Amino acid sequence: MANIKNIKAREILDSRGNPTVECDIYLDDNSFGRSAVPSGASTGMHEAIELRDNDKGRYGGKGVKKAISNVLEIVTPKIINQSFDNFYDFDKKLLSIDGTKNKSNLGANATLALSLAYAKALAFQKKEELFQYLSEDNDFVLPVPMMNIINGGSHADNSVDIQEFMIAPIGAPSFGESIRYGCEIFHSLKSKLKSKGLNT
């Protein structure tokens, strides 16, 4: 197993213009993995803690310099020049460094970026795509897509309490057909709601 040769971390912007953590991990056999971890629009009370800087002068307090500092100054010295048998052992090491159930010391944005970057480096080492590496020789099967058809809660400007209403077109003969089913249901629902004078 190759040793970790170098780790880089930086603050980037996600598709919503919010800062997030991006990490690069280089192994000494020149394998490489990079990952960025944008946050969701809402978080639940039991989710791992995403570390934000809370400096209102930068990105409205959403900067991630502290999480990046944790990657470079706390985690890197403890894992540099080490090798791990697999990404499970790497993740266990990250959890032990953090020492909390909710990842509040290092930040879930730091640990997830590192975890995914390491898994991608291992996939690169085996000349596989990440999904192939993670499948561990299981047959590849496309999943049934889940599609959001109505938004509520923090995702919408309405008074619907439930955050997302989703469908899963189970029983479709192919992935392409399941996408078609979902699109047709979505547009049919939109027409039905419009005909009743309801918001879409």
From TrEMBL:
Cited Gene3D superfamilies: Enolase-like C-terminal domain, Enolase-like, N-terminal domain
InterPro entries for this protein: Enolase (IPR000941), Enolase-like_C_sf (IPR036849), Enolase-like_N (IPR029017), Enolase_C (IPR020810), Enolase_N (IPR020811)
PANTHER family xrefs: ENOLASE (PTHR11902:SF1)
Record-level Gene Ontology MF annotations: magnesium ion binding; phosphopyruvate hydratase activity
SUPFAM superfamilies membership: Enolase C-terminal domain-like (SSF51604), Enolase N-terminal domain-like (SSF54826)
Recorded metabolic or biological pathway in which this protein acts: Carbohydrate degradation; glycolysis; pyruvate from D-glyceraldehyde 3-phosphate: step 4/5
Pfam families: Enolase_C, Enolase_N
Organism of provenance: marine metagenome
Positions of the Enolase C-terminal TIM barrel domain: 139-200
Enolase N-terminal domain mapped to chain residues: 4-134
EC number: 4.2.1.11
A GO CC annotation given for this chain: phosphopyruvate hydratase complex
Keywords on record: Glycolysis, Lyase, Magnesium
Listed GO biological process terms: glycolytic process
Keyword Transport: no
Name of this protein: phosphopyruvate hydratase
Family named by the database record: Belongs to the enolase family.
Family annotation (SMART domains): Enolase_C (SM01192), Enolase_N (SM01193)
